[in-house]
Amino acid sequence: GQIYWAKDIIFLVNEHDLLGMEAWLEGYHDVNLTGIRSEGTLGRAGAIQAAIALELSSDVVTSLDVAVEGLDGRLPNLDLLNLFQAFCQKNGLLCTIQGKLPRPDGDSLAAYGHRLQTLLLMVLAQASGRPRGDHGLFLRYRIEALTLRGVNSFRQYKYDMTAVGKTLEGMFRKLNNLLERLHQSYFFYLLPSLSRFVSIGHYMPAVGFLLLVLILKISFWGGTPPLTPCSPQDPQPGLLALVPPVLICHAAGLALYFLPVLGQRVATQHFPVSEAEAVVLTAVAIYVAGMALPHNTHRVVAGGGTDRGWMALKLLALLYLALQLGCLALLNFSLGFLLAATMVPAAAAVTPTGPR
Questions:
Q1: 150 — phi, psi (to 5°)?
Q2: Range from 25-39, 153-167, 327-341 carrying the lowest mean pLDDT
Q3: What is the mean pLDDT of residues 55-82?
Q4: Higher pLDDT, 1 or 275
Q5: Same domain, 165 and 212
Q6: 276 lies in some domain
Q7: In a domain? residue 5
Q8: Helices of type H across 190-242
Q9: Are 18 and 26 in contact (CB under 8 A)?
């Protein structure tokens, strides 16, 4: 009955955690992405502009911890996070990120270490690809969302539901005044604290420098003569000779993607194993079978496993790895960076010296 509300507000209580939220979202948008079937018809209030997922374990709150990492590493618009922080400061409510108490901004070593630890925790959470709350599923539908968790761990701070209610109402009032979706500000960022962020222009060069190692390795090997002199009778490796090992690797990847799900269905029907055990056993079987690949790959490379054939295969593998990590870093920086930091040194250090 308040005339200042220009938009509808939906209060949603779901069960089964993320499954219930995904079922409601699919029913609301009339899509079926995961095969979940929900019963009943849903009322609709138009396009959803933003969402706040609230998780409270008690009526006493010592702080509100905000979660921003969504499905597949998606992040909400930074303005929504800034809005939450502004109202926490206005109402005197303690707000945290990654469960870490904020420290005063400064140039001390302890402050830098605290911000670095918070940033690394966000990198690990984003790289996992798992949503850290119900808000992570809203981002799939281009709905800016956050999850606010009521924390009751810091005994020196205590707030009642009035302070939490004022913060939520203030955020809703601001979102109520929007005439369009949140589309400016940043969608790609890392958070060392709630008051500071690192934009994509500053952290993306870190992946670029790692991939530069592979590019330099490719250019170095491309201009280097063979490790051992080749006689005129030695076969020259052609591009077609590189197709079989690449196809074998892709077949192994497709097997890891599809066979665990198929094995889960077959095993649960014919063997006394659980679904989780069936997935694990199928994955282990694929990995054991894949151990035979290095011993058989040299048979399909031209030259019978000569240094030149292996070097051509290694150059293609490095180029392929650089392209894949670069594309992955654009979609999920944290996952691309962690994979690059672990795979690039090993890939650059290994030198092809025959079937070994």
A1: -75, 120
A2: 153-167
A3: 90
A4: 275
A5: no
A6: yes
A7: no
A8: 200-222
A9: no
What residue type is 250 in one-letter code?
A: H
Helix (H, G, I), strand (E, B) or coil at 48: coil
The reply to whether 182 and 304 lie within a common domain is: no
Q: Please answer whether residues 58 and 159 qualify as being in contact, where contact means their C-beta atoms are separated by less than 8 angstroms.
A: no
Least confident of 81-85, 113-117, 142-146, 305-309: 305-309
Q: Based on the domain organization, do 247 and 147 belong to the same domain?
A: no
Q: Are residues 207 and 184 in the same domain?
A: no
Question: Which residue segment(s) compose the domain that 35 sits in?
Answer: 17-194
pTM of the model: 0.82
Residue 172 and residue 23 in one domain? yes
Burial class (CB in 10 A: 0-12, 13-18, 19+), 340: buried
343 in any annotated domain: yes
Retrieve residue 309's tokens. 């054939």
Is the pLDDT confidence value at 185 over 50?
yes
3-state secondary structure of 197: strand
| pLDDT band at residue 34 under the 50/70/90 scheme | confident
Enumerate long-range contacts of 78-83, CB under 8 Å, 24 or more apart.
Answer: 78/185, 78/186, 78/187, 78/189, 78/197, 79/182, 79/184, 79/185, 80/50, 80/144, 80/145, 80/146, 80/182, 81/146, 81/191, 81/194, 82/185, 83/171, 83/174, 83/175
* pLDDT the model gives residue 223: 57
Longest dimension (CA), the chain: 90
If one counts the domains in the chain, the total is 2
| Mean pLDDT (whole number) for 107-123 | 89
Asked whether residue 177 is assigned to any structural domain, the reply reads yes
Q: Where are the beta strands (DSSP E) in the chain?
A: 50-55, 63-67, 95-97, 144-151, 189-193, 196-199
Same domain assignment for residues 30 and 130: yes
